[in-house]
Amino acid sequence: MRISAKGDYAVRAAAELAASQDGRPVRAETLARQQQVPHRFLEAILSDLRREGIVVSRRGAGGGYVLARPADRITVADVVRAVEGPLVFVRDARPSDLEYTGAAASLQHVWVALRVNVRAVLEQVTLADLAAGTLPASVLALTGDDAAWQNP
């Protein structure tokens, strides 16, 4: 699994919207500045998020973007899927749609298990969690081992 800049920027912008406690729309320029992301790229990302029902846009002088539903009902998985598509793809296919033979016959189970574990993390963390800086204990536990921070 690889999270592109687009996915990363989308989650960061959505977290900023979740942290905006007053409920007033936030301009794309403001979100871009707060997260130090390219404004034009963020505009395209926000368009994807709007199309997928994660954010709504408001026009006018006080316009900008707000979350389409409460932050505790939007997961990181929702945001990533909105801009990236399915969380785990293998050769542009869903793991459950693949077939392998011979010595690689069990590989499909590995890819499906990977998808299950990615979902277990990303579907558990909400934008409210990110905005509050309080991640679920099960997610934090995964980062508690020093080896989690190392690339083999």
Automatic annotation (TrEMBL):
<dbReference type="InterPro" id="IPR000944">
    <property type="entry name" value="Tscrpt_reg_Rrf2"/>
</dbReference>
<dbReference type="GO" id="GO:0003677">
    <property type="term" value="F:DNA binding"/>
</dbReference>
<dbReference type="GO" id="GO:0005829">
    <property type="term" value="C:cytosol"/>
</dbReference>
<dbReference type="InterPro" id="IPR036388">
    <property type="entry name" value="WH-like_DNA-bd_sf"/>
</dbReference>
<keyword id="KW-0238">DNA-binding</keyword>
<dbReference type="InterPro" id="IPR036390">
    <property type="entry name" value="WH_DNA-bd_sf"/>
</dbReference>
<protein>
    <submittedName>
        <fullName>Rrf2 family transcriptional regulator</fullName>
    </submittedName>
</protein>
<dbReference type="Pfam" id="PF02082">
    <property type="entry name" value="Rrf2"/>
</dbReference>
<dbReference type="InterPro" id="IPR030489">
    <property type="entry name" value="TR_Rrf2-type_CS"/>
</dbReference>
<dbReference type="GO" id="GO:0003700">
    <property type="term" value="F:DNA-binding transcription factor activity"/>
</dbReference>
